[in-house]
Amino acid sequence: GNVQIIGIFPNSLQFNETTKLCSQCELKNVQLMQAMIYAIDELVNRNPKLLPGLKVGWTLIDSCKSRELAMASLEYHFRKSNIFQLLSSRNLNYANLDPFVRTLQYNLNNTVSSEPPIIGVIGEDSDHLTIPLAYYTSSFRVIQITYNSRTTALSSGVMCPYFYRTSISYKQQAEAIADIISNFNWNWVSVIVTGSTIDKEFSTTLLRQFSFKKICVANNIVISNNYTQSDMISAIQNLKKTIKSKVVILTGNNKIIYALLKQAQSQRLTGITWIGTYNWLTEAQIANISSDIIRGAISIDVNKKIIRHFDDYLRKLNLCDSHGNPWLFDARKEISKSATANCKYGPQMARILKRTFYVPQSFTAFIMDAVLALAYSLHHKLGCTNTSCPALNAMEINRDREQLNHCLRNIQFQG
């Protein structure tokens, strides 16, 4: 490609600091990476009016949910694209980086790109990684767009002026939920937030909105990532004891949410109206929960019609072909527990793929919007028309990042 977009995704769930190896490939996160490839290939490069005469390539980074690995990988690619030479006098040693930085630099000819300029970074999935990455990218005037960041810590734009998000912030989600509750004239609610410390920020934001609208909170329960079974039992028992409130706001980590609903089913907690954020209600595993438990649940989600073309694209995708994404092989290996050269789908793999990889997630729409935002910004910065773009100067892209950021800040396009 003439320019590149870097994508950072948590394809692997663990990083071993000793061996410098990643493990436990997560198929659903690999799909998010594939959404970025789809957006660049299908929505940008195949659009003759967007960047005519130019091609966008991509670099893929597996963060392995490690902040250190994500930062080191990004720093490595910043150096390769000459960002350090133009913006910093750092003299960094990368001698030991290559063995454990799992990245792929890909262009349209399926060859390693010769250091194309970076027009932006997309990622990461969790605020735990997004926050330090945002400070880092802004320090080098490189645009970063996240598809799943919600923290208010990055909302002001003062400390990280090159940071953007296509996802909805905690404040916006809290306002929407408070409006729903007020609309139904519910006076009492319970709140359950699951996941990391950063996820708990949502609870504080939500309670503030409830205070504004005079909504009373009967229970405010926090379930951390290292929860125990007794934590789940206690949470459900507290809800069963609460007479005033039959409305429960449930948000955070989808896996913990599912475990909690399983416990609710075990204790026969019925008559609850669950309100969730984003897509936990549409998770495939929720089908295993009895309708008596989740009947009447309300969830905020993306209209799936807007990603129907990506849905078609996924269904036609053959995981035996890498499609510029080597983690597809890792995903197959994780499912089958063996790397097969002939790559034949067995019945078990077919069932797993059908309910995971081939079901588009809501977040994919936010990733596509991030890609389009960067492409339209470059279109305006270069002064492209519908038929041609001026000759691209890689050094100028690196030098004049403020103008690209200005274009992004004022961009409007059909998402």
Mind sketching the topology for me?
Blueprint: E1 3-9, E2 12-16, E3 21-25, H1 27-44, E4 56-62, H2 67-80, H3 83-87, E5 103-106, E6 118-122, H4 127-139, E7 144-146, E8 163-165, H5 170-183, E9 188-195, H6 200-212, E10 216-224, H7 229-241, E11 247-252, H8 254-266, E12 273-276, H9 291-294, E13 298-299, H10 308-316, H11 327-336, H12 347-355, H13 363-382, H14 394-399, H15 401-409
Parallel strand pairs: 1-4, 1-6, 6-7, 7-8, 9-10, 9-11, 11-12, 12-13
Antiparallel strand pairs: 2-3, 4-5
Structural commentary:
The chain has 15 helices and 13 strands. The relative contact order is 0.15. The chain has a six-stranded mixed sheet with strand order 5-4-1-6-7-8, with helices on both faces. A five-stranded parallel sheet has the order 10-9-11-12-13, with helices on both faces. Helix 5 (170-183) packs across helix 6 (200-212). By secondary structure, the chain is of the alpha/beta class. It folds into two domains: 3-165 and 305-409, 3-Layer(aba) Sandwich (Rossmann fold), CATH 3.40.50; 170-299, Rossmann fold (3-Layer(aba) Sandwich). Keywords: Glycoprotein, Membrane, Receptor, Transmembrane, Transmembrane helix.
